[in-house]
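Before we proceed, please read the two lines closing this message. Report back on whether the structure tokens fit the sequence:
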Amino acid sequence: MAKTEKVVRVSVTFPPDLLRDFDEVIRKIGYENRSKAVQDAVRLFVSERKWLQEEKGLQAGVLMLLYDHEVRGLEEALTDVQHDYAHIISSTMHIHLTERECLEAIAVKGDAGEIRKLSDELSSKRGVKIMKTMIVSL
């Protein structure tokens, strides 16, 4: 960080169970405070998304979503998005993890920009907890 840059304080809200899990993980890793752990998590998110934004050409891979199927309208919204991108989706696997949580693995092959749009649309839905994108250039 350049000496002229200042640290900016922000406020973030967490569901209690997520904060409890976060605190437990960072304690086990040895972080001294939440701020450093949140900064590292945000850096990882930004670097992953930047990499995805810069990729071009033909790609293949898997989009993996963890979501709460009890969020009203979420499953229908996820299905609608997937229908819009049927031309790049090769296969989808749905796994019931708990009474509320589902894991979906979506195999994709196509233009990087289309895969990026699909990933962005799915990850931005309320109720999607985690979106992991694993893509390789062909």
